[in-house]
Write a structure and sequence with these properties.
Blueprint lengths: L2 E6 L5 H11 L6 E8 L2 E8 L2 H10 L6 E7 L14 E2 L3 E9 L2 H10 L11 H10 L5 H11 L2 E9 L2 E10 L4 E4 L4 E4 L2 H4 L5 E4 L5 E4 L4 E4 L5 E2 L4 E2 L15 H7 L1 H12 E2 L4 E2 L13 E6 L1 H17 L3 E6 H4 L10 E7 L5 H12 L3 E6 L5 H5 L2 E4 L12 H20 L5 H11 L2 H8 L3 H9 L7 E5 L3 H16 L3 E5 L16 E5 L6 H12 L4 E6 L10 E6 L8 H19 L18
Parallel strand pairs: 18-19, 18-20, 20-21, 21-22, 23-24, 23-25, 25-26, 26-27
Antiparallel strand pairs: 1-4, 1-10, 2-3, 2-4, 5-6, 6-7, 7-8, 8-12, 9-10, 9-11, 11-15, 12-13, 13-14, 16-17
Helix pairs in contact: 1-2, 4-5, 8-13, 8-15, 9-13, 9-17, 15-19, 16-19, 17-19
Bound molecules: 5-amino-5-deoxy-1-O-phosphono-D-mannitol (M6R).
5-amino-5-deoxy-1-O-phosphono-D-mannitol binds next to helix 9 and helix 17.
Length: about 600
């Protein structure tokens, strides 16, 4: 999940490398580094920690050179420190790498026998030393090609060469790599986002491909090192990409943007004149769909879980959900009448991309619901439904989750219409209700003051539980995930009805238990489960849209979100949980946008 940048230019590149690395920090932020070539010398600078540190080092001791590579790391092999930070250089080459070399131990032993010495604990250094070895008898591109044949695992690479002062070689297998074009310089990057401030003309390497770039030329090669042409995309120009405005951090900006991102998404997908949903060109004739399988990771998986309830409620289609890292290794019985839907904010998540690849190999129809339309997952699927949330920078997913939900809901509704599972009046009513959402989201933000007070109650807690039934169960999972990733407090999400089958044993005096209980068909049942928790000393934080107050002294807080159509309530109920996680993390002085040990785009398995 590391971030890679490479620039070949006719002017010094280190400042632009630093600027691009700042954009790539969402991919990893435990160490950073860069290497430039100047007067046939590799000039390497590295730090542990953030890109700001690297910038300070460069400020004191600038790096000259018109060609260079940079890296932000999310540690896989070896602790995050200066030695393990990338680039990894020898006397001949310097390498940045994203991914994992699975046979690095074996390769390391061979190289050590040949007399090569390793400085770091990383898997990447075998690449540096293999290329160095092959350079004895080969030109740079061929030396990299020979190296690739030795490697097992996934990687994206950027490599510069001491004795070839004008080229960068890039290669990809598994991990994404983009190439950018400009008049007087060319670029290599983990994604188009890192290159956007410099160019909007991008090509993407496919698995097994290599590229060689100079300031004025880019050449692409296939798996057999045969020269190929690549399509050039013009990438979208997102507004307010990296501007926090008056917000303390990106996460708070992204939470409070949700009313407008949902409105934008509704505008994209609904036609107010025809009073219909603009979704056409289904890859399978909707009436012929046998089953829908929804696949994702983390928060995206939670949106799949919510969609299962919607599709089951609104359509007659059978639905399954799966976690991508499980799906990819199971013995799945593929069926061409099934539609396989992949949900991913980044569109680059390695497990989700691999699961999609398996579907493609089995020749079944795929759809992706993504925020980044130029992403690997979007480019590989038969059908793409963008969520139009705009760039999400905070590692904890917020507006992308609501965006995924709204697209999944719209899709469920449209499917139910075109299959004839719903009558016209009901369809029109559901559509009208959808348009009430942005206003209801805005009104939900008014709960923030209460949530700030509530957050204080979590400071001395040793753990917490989130409970819900029906579509509030995945919202409980999402609330627990947000709290643990942002505030590092243990949090369990559970279906409220499962408590008595084990987790009730965890309830002790004062344990914070967040109950998500909209006034739906599960409401009374959830109340009974709440009583069971109260009877054992749990401190209840009750989140509902029901006007009627509950009488119990153990209900520490009661938050009431606006009442909306029951099917849509998961969207509103999510917001207090996002704000709760945010405020607990703020009180604990955690790094909100970059929680420890995590990265925004998970491009390793
Ligand atoms: O980019 P994706 O939606 O595929 O990412 C999936 C997960 O890694 C992501 O949702 C993760 O769980 C978030 N950090 C949760 O806030």
């Amino acid at each position: 999940m590391c971030g890679i940048i490479g620039i070949a230019s006719n002017k010094p590149v280190s400042i632009n490398i630093i600027n691009s690395l700042k954009k790539l920090e969402y991919r990893g932020y435990d160490s950073a580094g860069l290497a430039t070539l100047n007067n046939s010398q590799i000039n390497e600078k590295k730090c542990s920690g953030r890109v700001d540190e690297l910038e300070k080092i460069l400020f004191k001791n600038p790096s000259e050179g018109n060609i260079g590579i940079g890296h932000v790391r999310w540690a896989t092999h070896g602790v995050p420190n200066i030695i393990n930070a990338h680039p990894h250089s020898s006397e001949k080459v310097s390498v940045v790498h994203n991914g994992i070399i699975e046979n690095s131990d074996e390769l390391k032993k061979d190289l050590e026998i040949k007399g090569f010495k390793f400085k770091s604990q990383t898997d990447t250094e075998v690449i540096t030393l293999l290329v160095t070895q092959f350079l004895e008898k080969s030109e740079p591109l061929e030396a990299v090609f020979k190296t690739l044949r030795k490697l097992k695992g996934s990687f994206a690479l950027g490599i510069i060469f001491k004795n070839f002062s004008d080229i960068i070689v890039g290669a990809r297998r598994g991990s994404p790599l983009a190439v950018g074009y400009s008049n007087e310089e060319n670029y290599l990057g983990s994604d188009s986002y890192a290159l956007k401030s410099m160019t909007n003309k991008i090509s993407y390497l496919d698995d097994g491909e290599l590229c060689m770039l100079t300031k004025s030329d880019i050449a692409f090669y296939d798996v057999n090192l045969k020269k190929i042409n690549k399509k050039i995309y013009t990438v979208s120009d997102d507004e307010n990409i990296s501007d926090k405005g008056d917000y303390k951090n990106f996460m708070s900006k992204e939470i409070f943007e949700q009313a407008s991102t949902i409105k934008k998404c509704l505008n994209e997908y609904t036609d107010s004149i025809k009073k219909d949903i603009n979704i056409y060109n289904f890859p399978i004739e909707p009436k012929q769909i046998n089953k829908i399988i929804l696949i994702g990771c983390g928060t995206a998986y939670h949106s799949c879980l919510v969609a299962k309830y919607w599709l089951e409620e609104l359509t007659t289609i059978d639905v399954e959900i799966d976690i991508a890292s499980e799906f990819r290794y199971r013995n799945i019985k593929f069926n061409p009448k099934n539609l396989y839907i992949f949900v991913s904010q980044s569109g680059e998540t390695a497990d989700t991309a691999a699961a999609l690849d398996i579907c493609k190999k089995n020749k079944v129809k795929t759809c992706s619901i993504v925020n980044v339309v130029e992403s690997t997952i979007a480019r590989s699927s038969d059908w793409v439904l963008p969520i139009h949330a705009g760039p999400e920078i905070g590692v904890a997913s917020t507006k992308a989750f609501l965006g995924q939900l709204i697209v999944l809901y719209i899709l469920s509704l449209k499917l139910s219409k075109v299959r004839g599972d719903i009558d016209k009046n009901k369809y029109d009513e559901y559509l009208r209700n959808l348009h009430k959402l942005p206003e209801s989201i805005k009104n939900t933000f008014k709960l923030e003051n209460e949530i700030q007070l509530m957050a204080k109650e979590f400071l001395d807690a040793n753990g917490s539980m989130f409970l819900g039934r029906g579509s509030s169960f995945p919202i409980a999972l999402e609330g627990a995930l947000k709290l643990k990733e942002l505030s590092y407090l243990h949090a369990e999400g559970y279906p409220a009805g499962e408590m008595k089958h084990g987790p009730l044993a965890l309830i002790e005096e004062g344990l914070p238990v967040i109950v998500i209980a909209p006034k739906d068909k599960y409401y009374e049942k959830t109340l009974s489960n709440t009583q069971e928790v109260i009877a054992r000393g749990g401190k209840i934080f009750f989140i509902t849209d029901n006007k009627k107050r509950l009488l119990s002294t153990n209900i520490r807080y009661r938050l009431r979100v606006p009442r909306i159509d029951n099917l849509l309530s998961p969207l509103l109920l999510t917001i207090p949980l996002q704000l709760l996680a945010y405020h607990v993390a703020l009180l604990k002085d955690c790094d909100i946008d970059k929680p420890r040990n995590l990265a925004k785009s998970v491009t390793v398995e």
